[in-house]
Task: structure prediction
Amino acid sequence: MMVAGIGCRAGAPLAALQAALDAAEAQAGPVDALATIAARGPHLAPLAGLRALPLHLVAVEGITTPTRSPRILALHGTGSVAEAAALAAAGPGARIVAARHVSPCGQATAAIAETAQKGPA
Result:
């Protein structure tokens, strides 16, 4: 399963969320779900509805991410909300397949994680 983690500033426009997600999907392919922190759930609900995707609200503090923003680390206890949300929602052993992409306006980020591959049945 592919999960897109989304981070955004309060009031980020839907177009910014879409642009960040589109950029991440261009690298990794389409996603099966969206994820973000609880505080941003209301901001992401329109995007989830538009894309007909489930939205997972997750805790991100303490999750190690490939990219690190000092500002986000101070605010949320992780280097990237987008990457950490994707990893948290994708579950144990998940890996980032599209690192943080930033919308052109800088108000939204998206990253994609893939669930751990399971062995043959």
